[in-house]
Amino acid sequence: MTSRAAPAPVGTVTRGTTNPNRLRRMDRWIAAAHGAELRRAGDAVAVDLGYGAAHWTPAELLQRLRTVAPRTRVVGVEIDPARVAAARPYEREGLAFRHGGFEIPLPERPSLIRAANVLRQYEEAEVADVWARLCARLAPASANSRGGLLVEGTCDEIGRRHVWVALGAEGPRTVTFATRLGSLDHPSDLAERLPKALIHRNVPGEPVHAFLRDFDHAWAAAAPYASYGVRQRWIRAVRDLSADWPVTDGVTRWRQGEVTVRWGALAPRG
């Protein structure tokens, strides 16, 4: 009997650019927003999909998730076999590396899939199918759980500016904008880090363009608060923005340089 060859991974090789601490803002948000679900899952599995040319981001994700869910395990999944081979010497308890792509080659269904800077090289028309494929691999909801979470987004090379979409099995839930406040001139500076589903929609007539326009206006109106520090200016701007946009978080997260908005308010038209 001949052995059957394993199916080829789904997806294409990315540039693999990575840096230590690049994804810290996303990691901290995941720990805050999804930590309770990970704890309820017990031996939860989190996937760092497309972690790139070094092992840093899966290792950092494990460290940050274990502060809120100590039994969580992280698997780094990469479509480039050479990157997997280079990362395997760093495996340890709770951290493993696997060759694969969007099919997520694990026997279990993960409680978290993080895909940072993966879809940027894809076409906008491909995003919905990739989202659907990944969401179908998430742990299912139950009476006590909303199920697994997919977090997909884009950041700059050192993680100062980041925008991501959070999705459950039912589809997109929220969009989060996160920044190092000292690096910001205007909130619309974050437009260059919009995920692939939104970046080409930052044009007049699209909701995300209107959101960033209103955010800039709120930022300008909050200028007097800059005398108390850029953090207070951001908090005031987000508070004013929330009068017209469905902001889902509160001051605790705003203080981190974040704001999260319901997906439906920013979803592309058509």
Automatic annotation (TrEMBL):
Gene3D superfamilies tied to this protein: Vaccinia Virus protein VP39
Organism: Streptomyces ureilyticus
Keyword Acetylation appears in the UniProt entry: no
GO biological process: methylation
Protein name per Swiss-Prot or TrEMBL: Class I SAM-dependent methyltransferase
GO molecular function, one term: methyltransferase activity
Keywords, alphabetical: Methyltransferase, Transferase
Annotated spans, Disordered: 1-20
SUPFAM superfamilies given in the database record: S-adenosyl-L-methionine-dependent methyltransferases
InterPro entries from the UniProt entry: SAM-dependent_MTases_sf (IPR029063)
